[in-house]
Amino acid sequence: MWSSFLVHCNVYVNAVVIEAELCNCSKVVGLKDYILLCCQNNGILICFDLIAYSLNIEISEEVFVDPIFQQVYLSTADMVY
Fold it and tell me: What is residue 80's predicted lDDT score, i.e. its pLDDT?
């Protein structure tokens, strides 16, 4: 549980830094890179981790890495965003 939380925090912080650098340099990235950056710096996955922690939900690694679960998980994050 905490490993995914720490990974998501690291991804979030890195995305925020990249976005700040792009703004500072007045650079514009392509649409595909922009969408990925937005998905990484919105903090939704961190919120999901905190919700799971507060509800004492533990998702096994085998389930979490399943492609179908990942598709549903990330689609949910997209809907929230």
Answer: 79
Amino acid at the residue 36: L
Count: domains in the chain: 1
Residue 61, token pair as written in the block: 């690694």
Q: What is the mean pLDDT of residues 50-60?
A: 90
C-alpha distances in Å from residue 59, one per residue of 20, 28, 41: 33, 38, 23
Cα 70 from Cα 56, distance rounded (Å): 20
Spatial contact of 47 and 12, defined as CB atoms under 8 Å apart:
no
Domain that holds residue 52: 2-80
Chain centre to alpha carbon of residue 41? 7
> And the tokens for 28?
């514009």
Cβ atoms of 50 and 9 within 8 Å: the answer is no
How far is residue 39's CA from residue 12's CA, in Å, rounded to a whole number? 9
